[in-house]
Design a protein that fits this description.
- The protein is an alpha/beta fold and 178 residues long.
- The protein has a single domain, classed as Uracil-DNA Glycosylase, subunit E, CATH 3.40.470.10.
- Strands 2-1-3-5-4 form a 5-stranded mixed β-sheet.
- Strand 4 and strand 5 form a beta hairpin.
Length: 178
């Protein structure tokens, strides 16, 4: 197992947000989405649901496809977790789903989306709600784009509009009104 493992903490919620993997800052900060992508993600929740970062972290369970920073690519930037790393960590995500029995899962980015369904093009999945099953639990899935500064998708059309649609769908979901 890699170290250090990054966790969102013990939040009992019917909503699980699933990220790709922590970046290099998250292990130092001790929480997921603690740096640039997190600032964007929490801005989305503030605009779409009226929640501050603290409120979002207290109301949504944060999970990840991989629990540890996978390292840097040779040319710079964060390395995408390997299929072996994803497989090794999948047991954790399955256990979290079985324990929390979520009504709503929010996968963030293509890698996280692909753990639940075919990711394809973002404009085919962002802004839509899907019914999914994993680890013996049925739940709604509302995919989100990755809030990374490296991807301009959510800042241009159709990404901006589809992200707004996704945030409205999240705000209206029964699992949110707890």
């Amino acid at each position: 197992m890699c170290k250090p493992v990054v966790s969102g903490g013990p939040v009992m919620s019917r909503v699980i947000l699933v990220g790709q993997a922590p970046g290099d800052k998250e292990p130092k900060m001790g929480r997921p989405f603690a740096w640039t992508a997190g600032k964007t993600l929490f801005k989305w929740f503030e605009q779409g649901l009226g929640w501050s970062e603290a409120e979002t972290r207290s109301r949504i369970y944060f999970a990840a496809v991989c629990r540890c920073f996978p390292g840097k690519k040779a040319g710079g930037g964060d390395r995408v977790p390997s299929p072996q790393e994803i497989e090794e960590c999948s047991v954790w995500l399955d256990r979290e789903i079985r324990i929390l029995e979520p009504a709503l899962v929010l996968p963030v980015g293509k890698l996280a989306i692909s753990q639940f369904q075919e990711a394809g093009k973002l404009d085919a999945v962002i802004g839509k709600t899907f019914r999914c099953r994993r680890a013996g639990i049925d739940f709604d899935l509302i995919p989100l784009p990755h809030p990374s500064g490296a991807s301009p998708w959510h800042r241009m059309e159709p990404g901006r509009t589809l992200l707004g649609n996704a945030l409205r769908a999240i705000a209206c979901h029964p699992a949110i009104s707890f």
